[in-house]
Amino acid sequence: xxxxxxxxxxxxxxxxxNVIKEQLKKMSEEEKADAFYKNVEFGTAxxxxxxxxxxxxxxxxxxxxxxxxFAIYLLEKFPQATTQGVVISHDNRHQSREFTILSAKTLNNxxxxxxxxxxxxxxxxxxxxxxxxxxxGGIMITxxxxxKEYNGYKVYDETGCQLIPSKIKxxxxxxxxxxxxxxxxxxxxxxxxxxxxxxxxxxxxxxxxVEQISLNPKLNKKNFKIVFTPNHGTSYVxxxxxxxxxxxxxxxxxxxxxxxxxxxxxxxxxxxxxxxxIEPIKVAKENSADLIVMTDPDGDRVGLAYLGxxxxxxxVNGNEGAAMLLNYILTIRKERNDLPQKGVMYNTVVTSPLxxxxxxxxxxxxxxxxxxxxxxxxxxxYYEKHHGPTFIFGYEESYGCLVAPFARxxxxxxxxxLYTEMALYYKLKGMDLEDVYNMISxxxxxxxxxxxSFEFKGxxxxxxxxxxxxxxxxxxxxxxxxxxxxxxEDYLNSTRISNGETTSIELxxxxxxxxxxDDGGYIAIRPSGTEPKVKFYLxxxxxxxxxxxxxxxxxxxxLLKLLNLEQ
Length: 567
Known about the structure:
Number of helices: 18
Structural class: alpha/beta
């Protein structure tokens, strides 16, 4: 069915109310094309898209269809699904509460019990709650760090982990076999499931476990001040409770503490975007704060900035922050003779190699996965059941990490507690975070890592992304910035070519290409699974910060020229 047919189907349907029909009538041709050129995809990260009417949008019809599919999937997989139930949580976004209630009622109509929080809660707490309540699955209504126009729908398995491809394939097949989003029908069971509104005991248990990860809870907190913002999202209550329990002097960014779906006081809800720090830095300067910490709206990612010797605030990216935190954790645990004999750290194939070098120096193994924290959560579960190495730390370059695996997704509350503690620990030694990173760099080499994105919107955009990746496979990079490519990793074809020898990559297939250079630098390229953009990951390893920054810039400019992309 083409764009116009889909549009008319919605416009003429008795199931679409008049308010939505008026929105449809006001659409431009470009808006119609983007809203109806395809179905919003339910992939390995669930669904994420712009809110509004259309087949390629998040709305009551696309959410109901996904939930019907999830209900069928759960009843097929778990005989006890009706009694063990599903936990549902949501963030601050437009229609998040409505989608939560819709999902709960749909599951109830299939006889499945649901647990719903009384208001918004962070993604990691949803993951924990699935495990704590021994539910068969979970749903998180969130668009994470995306702009205000977006919302999303993520599903979790019985371990509190997002479904990995081998698990989600059956769910995707079920959803794809259902009628279109307007024509999905089902017969409600005679004994519907109940919806239980969760009380504060879940918060208490979750916060208690977060607080137990502290390595130095009794550090002297005098003359150490923190600025915190939840970016209008889910983390405010739990975070402020934790700061209070540890007696930190914390100043919240008041204008960003209310759960506002329009993000009215935040230029960006994404910690990866420097604009998200504009207001917190203003508050930090007014209060002479030592540290700024923030979470994204659903509370799984963390942003970090510190007061430097120049009295300015400096942002820390995901690779840098995680490397420093890993080094802190391993250092303290080694001093206390608390490192397991067989420990393991997890990262991703687009993460800086610095973390692996740090882990190796402490005798800790590293395993790398595709992007998506579900792979890390799944491996934690696998090793727990098969007596594998002990989990110590897991992180992605995209500002998310996990310290203790009572949750199986990246956890912003765990991260801000230990980032704050780490910054205080080093301040008491007369060091700021620049000193800490320089200390690490002198030992392991200076690592500069950046992520760049290009947007490719609409039906033409998808073709452009496909063509770009096809070009890279047919004509892989051989040299860039006077450095030779030593290895090419193609995660879609599961191959690694180095010195003319081809070996297999034992990971799920994914549309990612990675080029590793003779000096340890790298470029990885992948289309985003949740947004119409291609991400470029670039890394350089040199003996100084200036050299690394210069090398990264040259690599990026030359790469754009080769791919015929405008900067």
